Amino acid sequence: MASNNNMPLSADALVDLVALRDRLNAAAHGDRRSMVERYAMGLGRSTNTVYNWLRQYADYDSGRKARTDKGSSRLPDESLQAIAAMKREGVRLNGKQTMPIGVAMNVADMNGITVNVSQSQVARLLRERRMDAASVMSSRVTTELRSEMVNHVHQIDPSLCLLYYMGGKQHLMTEAKFYKNKHENYAKVKLKVWRYVRVDHFSGVVDVRYFESAGENQGVLFDFLMWTWGRQEGRLNFGVPKLLLWDKGSANTSHAIKNLLDGLGVRHETHAAGHSWAKGSVEQANNLVETHFESRLKLEPVNSVEELNASALAWSRAWNANLIKHVDARLVRASGEPMVRDDLWNLILRAPGALVELPSREVCQWFMAGRERERQVNNLQITFAHPELGRAARYDLRAWAEFIHNRQRVTVTPLLMRDGLLRVEIARPGAEPLLVEVEPQRDFDAAGRSLSAQLIGEGYHRAPETAGEAVARRLAVAAYGEGTTVDGAEALREKSARPFADFNGGKGMVAHTPLAEHEAPARLLPVATEVQTEAVRVAGRSVREVQAAPLSHVEAAKRLRALVGDAWTAEHFAWLAQRHPGGVQEDALQTIADEIKAGRTMQPLRAVGGA
Q1: From CA 235, how far away is CA 241, in angstroms rounded?
Q2: C-alpha pair distances (Å), 343 with each of 241, 282, 289, 293, 312
Q3: Are strands 243-246 and 153-160 parallel, antiparallel or unpaired?
Q4: 566 in Cβ contact with 596 (< 8 Å)
Q5: What is the pLDDT of residue 278?
Q6: Least crowded by CB within 10 Å, which of 141, 206, 220, 405?
Q7: Cα distances (angstroms) measured from residue 594 to each of 567, 568, 597
Q8: For residue 175, how many C-alpha atoms fall within 13 Å in the half-sphere facing its CB?
Q9: Is residue 475 over pLDDT 90?
């Protein structure tokens, strides 16, 4: 007899098996079980194995009919569904099930839900109907993702490493030391070691680097991006991707990092909640680093993060090139063909433009300022010092004049590796902002003027109408009538033409005459009191004194003679008395003296009939 259940039976065994089948068909139904048991005992096999052989090799049919109630139960479907739902809600994010079947049955029973079968029966029904927690958690069908070429899609994921360094020595966060009294011991490690892993989705190339930090922050992330996308000695892969996938970490979504990625032209997306499988490549890479590299560090410790990074670079270089003896580091994907990661990355030679060099660190740091930049539009142009150009350049916005007002402020973002290209965001009332990409002006004459400028004496081409000018034109029409231009409205204003003259049947717009029709309401006012300050009292007294005591004609004449000298004559005294019969105020003396000096005094009047 064959020794393996799945191996074909010998010819003698088949003859014996057919003879058993014939005996079973001839025997009474109650004797068949014992006949199979004796046959199985003689071969040292189980009765189930013998029945399987009979069905497979001897075409045996026991004649037993399936129960008509197979698959059914006394437990109502609603009850089973409620129990399954309670167990599903008790599953944590890490997959641990926190509600046993018995607890779910008890809660259901307390809430009036029928539970009339045993716990084992409920468990069997949950498994049969694929309603147990394991089946439900694995019910999601994920979508297979494909990248187009090397450096098309990169995935990055930071993780807290179990290693840390204190006193120039490597330590490990052991479970006994850090989880029994977790908070107390964990707080002692001020600088923890963070592992940053990057994977190229197309080739599967893995890059890893470690940083000492209190936590994730944008500074560490910036350093990692500069490292992983820059050229490194001894590492084959480098370059800026077109798309970056990662988690919604605070450092990842900081304005400065997003500003950098926008400047580099890298689309950046976070996977949807509950869809961490979308960056499964980097999740697997983290596990590879932990098991294939970090597992070696306990056997051969390193004394600093610098030494750790040197070892990590050596390991990743060997891993990507499949150079580790006894370890097959090749990829096996849907095609079934094992592939070396570095060989796949080298296919970048077949894709012109796929390898994009990272700009200098200084240029990249310019984008980490973390703020948007604004420029004011003047004559449909803006000026901006692009970090790649190293100088101020002019950018012409005439192509979008219809959306722009002169002196309007626009938001600008320089784009790297695009030869000075600038992304300009133009706000539009009641609509989404307009995003345009503008090249700097490059063609100039020997005097430094733009070759696109109007050449004097070669005709005149009016600049395109801006949004501001369009508004001004509409306002001119509203004020002075259809067909009026902005220049025409200005000419009419210079002539003091009346705006809105066609209102009220040609009478013009009234602006103030209706105000006279309003009758102000009568109001009671309290009696006002006089100001009683000492300064006001002194000023009032001085005024009264001056007004009550003018200079006499004799005193005034003495004062005037001193002011005008030899110009004073006896006739002036008579003129003074006639002009100021009540006396002369002191503050009038200088004016009178000026008149005498200028010869503008009048001769005194003489009485009619006098000598």
Answers
A1: 17
A2: 18, 19, 20, 21, 20
A3: parallel
A4: no
A5: 45
A6: 141
A7: 11, 12, 5
A8: 0
A9: no
